[in-house]
Design a protein that fits this description.
InterPro entries: NCS2, UacT-like, Xan_ur_permease. The protein is mainly alpha-helical. It is built from 19 helices and 2 strands. The chain has one domain.
Length: about 475
């Protein structure tokens, strides 16, 4: 059971430590505080995993679910950092995560009923934007943060970053089993060893890290509440809830326990509670890790207590900062090369979700195109909204926030019943029109007539007949 639990930790470890590394670097945290941030993320990921898999009262799906820091929160958190002074950013972030987690907990039973308003078209668009908006972070890790610095984009940095990227890809191609699942970690290890003689490894954090530390509430800052920052994190939490719902449905099928409304609500409560607890101890928003669902399917080990054991291992890693300090030895160019693969995987997940959304439908294609355009503005041009009021910039400077809002609104606009009636006024090849009883709401009892055009898709789901 312990070894099987460690496999789950190995499959998601890099994903847990990457967000605190990204945020810590953006904040310019000193080595000791960066170690605490990593430790807090590991500890809270372990707590959230145990809560989700074992369950308490009506909290936790009681499935072999691994929870950890969601990548979706990184982009809006970086936008908050850009808007706040560095010493004020963490308290604002924790206040936003705390409120978002509490609201997610309270909204869980209602969200489980309203999930149909967030179809694959919207969800896939947002996940794709998450991956794309994080790409510049990986590139800056390789080249450097300051374009005016003499060593910016120096050949040794680019070489080690590119070598790490290629190595991670090759390891995933040729390794099998457990080694394939930890290919990212192997790539980081080999890249760090290769970068050491090049003078790119900083051992300061490791030398100063304490062996043992019990995280205390609000050790990195007392929460400060900001409306616009909270809104951006709430949007991320909303998307995370949608992703977790999809993951619960998929995992329920694998372990032969269909995910009903009650199970989904319990799982979403665990996401909210885990995020709130995470904010208290210095972490960020928590949600399910989809790669671990694949591990359950691959190994056939369906016991939730195996995953709970992995959660216990994560807690131990969080209690020993020296272990977190080992992670901080990874130089930025190495981390950047591996991160590009990781961020690309997030983008690929979004595209995979979009493949179920019927993009052959011109309306759905327009929803995706418009949302992508709006969401990529702050990614391509970070200064685009610099003349807007500061109260709006926290949301506008995050491609994930603007893209999500655009996707929701455009999906309602282009896939409402009114537009569908116009499209179906002259049905092709004699196909009978199929209308929803209310704008934007699918009639669960309706039986659609045979049709050939993908334009007869469900107005809420936004997908064609091949969905």
């Amino acid at each position: 059971m312990l070894f099987a639990g460690i496999q789950h930790v190995a499959a998601m470890y890099a994903g847990v430590v990457a967000p605190p590394l990204i945020v810590g670097e953006a904040l310019g945290l000193p080595p000791v505080q960066l170690t605490l941030l990593i430790g807090a993320s590991l500890l809270t990921a372990g707590i959230a995993t145990v809560l989700q898999s074992v369950g308490v009262w009506r909290i936790g799906a009681r499935l072999p679910f691994v929870n950890g820091v969601t990548f979706g929160s990184v982009a809006p958190i970086l936008a908050i950092v850009a808007q706040q002074q560095q010493q004020n950013a963490l308290p604002v972030i924790y206040g936003s995560v705390l409120i978002a987690g509490a609201l997610a907990f309270l909204a869980a039973p209602y969200f489980s009923r309203l999930v149909r308003f967030f179809p694959p078209l919207v969800n896939g668009t947002v996940i794709t934007l998450i991956g794309l908006s994080l790409m510049p972070v990986g590139i800056k890790w390789i080249a450097g943060q300051d374009a005016e610095a003499p060593d910016y984009a120096a050949m040794p940095k680019i070489a080690i970053g590119a070598a790490t990227l290629v190595l991670v890809l090759l390891l995933n191609r040729f390794l099998r089993g457990f080694l394939q699942r930890i290919a990212l970690l192997v790539g980081l290890l080999v890249g760090t060893l290769a970068a050491w003689p090049m003078g790119l490894v900083d051992t300061t954090t490791f030398e100063q890290a304490p062996l043992f530390n019990v995280p205390t509430p609000f050790q990195l800052g007392t929460p400060v509440f900001d409306i616009t920052a909270t809104l951006s994190i709430c949007i991320v939490m909303l998307v995370a809830m949608m992703e977790s719902t999809a993951d619960m449905i998929a995992l329920g099928e694998i372990v032969d326990r269909p995910a009903d409304e009650k199970l989904i609500a319990a799982g979403l409560r665990a996401d909210g509670a885990g995020s709130a607890v995470s904010a208290v101890f210095g972490g960020f928003t928590c949600s399910a890790f989809a790669q671990n669902i694949g591990l359950v399917a691959l190994t056939g080990i369906k016991s939730r207590f195996v995953v709970a054991t992995g959660g216990g291992v994560l807690v131990l890693l969080g209690l020993f900062p020296v272990l977190g300090a080992v992670v901080s030895l990874v130089p930025q160019p190495v981390l950047g090369g591996a991160a590009l693969v990781l961020f690309g995987s997030v983008t690929a997940s979004g595209i995979k979700t979009l493949s179920k959304a019927g993009l052959g439908d011109p309306f759905n294609a327009l929803v995706f195109a418009g949302s992508l355009a709006v969401g990529m503005v702050p990614v391509i041009s970070p200064e685009f909204y610099e003349h807007f009021p500061a109260a709006l910039r926290t949301v506008l400077d995050s491609g994930i926030s603007t893209g999500c809002i655009a996707a929701l609104l455009l999906n309602l606009l282009f896939n409402s019943s009114r537009q569908r009636r116009e499209m179906q006024a002259a049905p092709e090849d004699g196909a009978a029109p199929v209308l929803s009883p209310e704008p934007g709401v699918q009639d669960p009892d309706a039986v659609p007539a045979p049709r050939e055009s993908e334009r007869d898709a469900d107005p809420v789901k936004g997908t064609g007949p091949g969905r």
